[in-house]
Write a structure and sequence with these properties.
Helix content is 16%, strand content 41%. A four-stranded antiparallel beta sheet has the order 1-3-6-5, with no helix packed on it. The protein has a four-stranded mixed beta sheet with strand order 2-8-7-4, with no helix packed on it. Strand 7 and strand 8 form a beta hairpin. The longest helix is centred in the first third of the chain and has 23 residues.
Length: 148
């Protein structure tokens, strides 16, 4: 066997071993979905509003970050309570890698009393976490506690 053939065989053995190791550890995703995907990361998964007065409207803003490589596109924001949570704005343009964009909502405490827990669902093009839940916690004062 010539020296040139030995080099070719060693090259292909090394290349094959590297390719198999890469596939087994997940680097096959570099060609499509996996590691080159958008990753939705919320600034906070629980928005604690604390104690709020009854019949009030509280505006809340939190940030969505793209922790992935490809652009993150929010396809929608849904609420679990249409009468108490209104979506003011969310990014309609794609969020680039490493960037953060605000989501603004209002929380209406009318007809709510005591400890309240509501949810918001953020729908995006993140292939592994397509629907991302964000929870809103608040304690709405009772009118009796205010001395009315």
């Amino acid at each position: 066997m010539t020296s040139n053939n030995c080099r070719r065989i060693l090259f292909w053995l090394a290349f094959s071993a590297f390719a198999i190791a890469g596939i087994c550890t997940g680097y096959y995703h570099l060609f499509g979905t996996g590691y080159c995907r958008p990753v939705l990361v919320a600034e906070r998964q629980i928005l604690d509003l604390g104690v709020i007065p009854p019949d009030s409207i509280t505006e809340v803003e939190f940030f969505i970050t793209n922790g992935g490589v490809r652009s993150l596109q929010l396809e929608g924001v849904r609420t679990g309570c249409a009468s108490c949570i209104k979506i003011i704005s969310y990014p309609s343009e794609a969020i680039r890698r490493g960037s953060s964009e605000p989501v603004r909502i209002t929380f209406n405490s009318k007809s709510l009393r005591g400890s309240v827990r509501r949810s918001i669902l953020i729908i995006s093009n993140d292939p592994f976490r397509r629907v991302y839940p964000v929870r809103i916690d608040a304690v709405v004062e009772r009118k009796e506690e205010l001395g009315e």
